[in-house]
Design goal:
The chain has 242 residues and is α/β, with parallel strands linked by helices. Helix content is 39%, strand content 17%. It is built from 8 helices and 9 strands. The strands form 2 sheets. Strands 4-3-2-1-9-6-5 form a 7-stranded parallel beta sheet. A two-stranded antiparallel sheet has the order 7-8. Helix 2 crosses helix 3. The radius of gyration is 16 Å and the shape is globular.
């Protein structure tokens, strides 16, 4: 069984990012931006309220402190400072969840922080340090430091697969600054294969092992709504409630 998750709540002030209203009814879990790569206090609360209305679970989507770069630029930062950065953001979202009578479901690092935690021990430990505080599962990728360190630290990991990003030949995620539109039928087929076979084709044509407890679509992918619709229809027999 699998979930559908989406990175969302990424508008800021008067600037709009993604069609959250159309996406929310199509997913089971929302990863809500916490203000350091996108969003603000008003959009955080609005997104939490929308999730509650649609019966969607909410997790925190903390990032490096990089609003200008949308959290998609790497940064040199120590384990302690990074852990504090994550705790700060998750704590803010948790306040809005409690205001709406909801619980924090998980933590999923955003963008470059996600990539750093996949291959840098200090970053993965910083994420786990934050999870020690909030005691919720972490989303991550198998065969990376996500899986190794999160599980060694005693945290449940929800294995994640991306239908709108490519994988390199080493099994790593290719994180782009801006996401291109993807073919919806191909995305749906990738999701099915990831669930049934635990594999995806890399950019070099290699079969890469993946985990697919949850399928991710980014709200800033240009045709995100179409992708969510296609993926939801395709994996309906495998879809589970959060």
């Amino acid at each position: 069984m699998a979930l559908i998750n989406c990175d969302m709540g990424e508008s800021f002030g008067l600037y709009k990012m993604g069609d959250d209203d159309a996406i929310m009814p199509l997913i089971t879990v929302a990863n809500v931006a916490c203000g350091f790569h996108a969003s603000d206090f008003n959009h955080m609360r609005k997104t939490v309220r929308s999730a509650k209305k649609n019966g969607v679970k909410v997790g925190a989507h903390p990032s490096l402190p990089d609003l200008q770069g949308f959290g998609r630029r790497e940064m040199k930062i120590s384990r302690e400072e990074l852990a504090n950065c994550i705790i700060y953001q998750v704590g803010a979202l948790k306040g809005f969840l409690e205001a709406e009578g909801m619980q924090l479901y998980h933590i999923k690092p955003h963008g470059s922080l996600y990539g750093m935690a996949a291959r840098m021990e200090h970053a993965a430990h910083a994420v786990a340090d934050a999870a020690d505080v909030f005691k919720v599962p972490l989303m991550g990728m198998i065969n990376t430091l996500h899986e190794k360190i999160y599980t060694e630290r005693g945290h449940k990991m929800i294995a994640e697969f991306y239908v709108d990003l490519d994988y390199n030949d080493d099994g790593g995620l290719i994180i782009t600054r801006e996401h291109d539109a993807k073919d919806a039928k191909e995305a749906a087929a990738k999701a099915i294969r990831a669930i049934k076979e635990g594999k995806v084709k890399s950019v070099g044509g290699k079969d890469i092992a993946v985990g697919a407890d949850t399928i991710c679509v980014h709200s800033d992918t240009p045709n995100a709504v179409e992708l969510c619709q296609a993926v939801r229809a395709a994996i309906k027999p495998y879809l589970s409630a959060a």
